[in-house]
Amino acid sequence: MGHKIIVCYLRAGSAVLDDHILNRAAAFMAPPSTQSSDHLPPVIHVELFFPDAADPNLGLSAGIHYGGSVFMHPKSFRRNDWVFHSIPASASQVRLAKAFCERQRGAGFNYFGFFGPSMCNIGNNYRVRNLDTKRMPWYCSELVAYTLLHAGILDNGETRDASVHPNAAYNIIQTCCDTFVDSARNLTGRSLQL
Questions:
Q1: Minimal CB count within 10 Å: which of 4, 20, 37, 51?
Q2: Would 191 be classed as within a structural domain?
Q3: Can you give the pLDDT at residue 96?
Q4: Long-range pairs for 13-18 at CB < 8 Å and ≥24 separation?
Q5: Which domain holds residue 17?
Q6: pTM, to two decimals
Q7: 41-54, pLDDT tens digit by residue?
């Protein structure tokens, strides 16, 4: 199998998420799903997972939570609530995405972007100009979208649209990235005898 970047989604109502006013607000404000067969609650959190080449169930997760800072550390996705979609990528694209997340590690949460309206592409233009040089504040869908832009997987318009909300990221990535359902969990077990 070739290289891939796994996008990890959490939907509203997930047992992994706290029953918090911000999570309920994120679900309420989610753009509708563009997947006609998707009648599930909206996605309200998104992270990236970079599987290890030797063992695809090991790897690094990159993301940010409200009030936190960008992380990139080993993570095991034990909870069933996570939904995984893989994006086929070249070795170079994976390397660029990982390097971008590593450079952003420790960056703070983007409160202004999270609570403020998106005005005239000012934030997008600033981010695009400074992707290679600056560590910037993020919220989860921004970090994922701009990582994929930096890797050459999304274009500028797709990135701008995907960054506004985790469910928008879900819609754009599903439409533009030739994704496939995958897992970041260890699925090995005994073989069934038929």
A1: 37
A2: no
A3: 97
A4: 13/41, 14/79, 14/81, 15/79, 15/81, 16/79, 16/81, 16/82, 17/44, 17/45
A5: 3-182
A6: 0.87
A7: 999 999 999 988 77
